[in-house]
Amino acid sequence: MITDILKNETSVWHRLKHSKKPIVLYGMGDGADKVLSAFKKYTITASAVIASDDFVRGQSFHGFTVKKLSEVEQEFSDFTIALCFATQLPDVMDRIYQISKTHEIVVPSVPVFGNILFDDEFILANAASLDCAYNLLADEKSKEVFKNILKFYYTGKIELLPPITTDKDEAFNNILRLGCNESYVDLGAYNGDTIDEFLNYAGTNYKRIIALEPNSKNFEKLKSHCSEMPNVTLWQLGSYNKNTELIFNNKAGRNSAISEKGVKTQVATVDTILCGMAASYIKADVEGADFETIEGMKNTLKNFKPKLNFAAYHRFEDIFMLILLISKINPKYKFYLRHHPYIPAWDTNLYCI
Fold it and tell me: pLDDT category, 264, cuts 50, 70, 90?
């Protein structure tokens, strides 16, 4: 079984709970909130909170005065750092890896959406599904990514990420291989940056672009960005498994998502939007609505088998459930996993052809 790779590993939660050293949280945002909530569940005690030097201004976070690393180094002779934020900025990632050379750093993985943690209970409940998904992966690199991501989720060992990290060029050039006359559907188009990504790899001789973005502020930026582009249709919608109205948080940036509080937002299925038209490539970064989005494009997947590019890191289930759901709809798909530069294991994407 694929879970055998974890048998001789220690979970990050067990490691922190039984650590003899003070535990210092690095970060003070939503990620740190979630980590502290997990600490409460596993009865783990934090001793301090640090932030990057430029962000330290005497703030308070959960009763801790936020300090610089140098201040904590003076306070404790030795300690473990629990990284609690995400970054893809090269200089910040370099800084984290540099710190890891002199201090023990672990990454307690918490989901972007939901509150299910990757622990022994999760592994036991999903062992069979993990095996099925692993066996559907199409190349050795994907299997290496799958195994290291599972180990990373479980152990929090930051050194597991660099060996499996590849640039997007590798995925687009070797897997997706976009060409002329593509019909592109962009789900979660944000401000148009992934349309630019598509044009970079596919060129400007595309057939059509259809882009969905639920957030009103992002949608205005998207309209402005695409105003001079031909054959582009924009919808202020979220993608889902039915056509209805849901509540989305009002966060700008890439964080617009279904929420208990926020603004009423229209959602629709991809099958409805396309209305029988073909799609040759679909990118989806839909902030936790991934399973529903797949259910809403069943006809498209069956009839046209478009190339797919799905974010596979919003929930721990994504790395295997996306594969199983898509395979059930169209067994002809081949599945590839790639992890692109990011700490923690964000920007882990599922590519299907």
Answer: confident
CA distances from 130 to 82, 124, 221, 321, 323 (A): 27, 10, 39, 8, 10
Question: Residue 215: which CATH number?
Answer: 3.40.50.150
**3-state DSSP assignment of residue 315:** coil
Q: What is the DSSP letter of 176?
A: I
149: its two tokens: 């991501």
* pTM over 0.90, yes/no: yes
Could you give the 3-state DSSP secondary structure of residue 331?
Answer: coil
Residues 113 and 217 in one domain: no
Per-residue pLDDT of 63-116, as tens digits, reads 999 999 999 999 999 999 999 999 999 999 999 999 999 999 999 999 998 889
Both structure tokens of 90: 């090269």
Asked, for residue 340, whether it belongs to a domain, the answer is: no
Pairing of strands 263-268, 244-248: antiparallel
Of residues 308, 255, 299, the one with CA closest to residue 274: 299
Q: What is the rounded CA–CA span in Å between residue 194 and residue 215? A: 16
Look at residue 326 and tell me if it is in a domain. Answer: no
Name the nearest CA neighbour of 146 among 314, 337, 345.
337
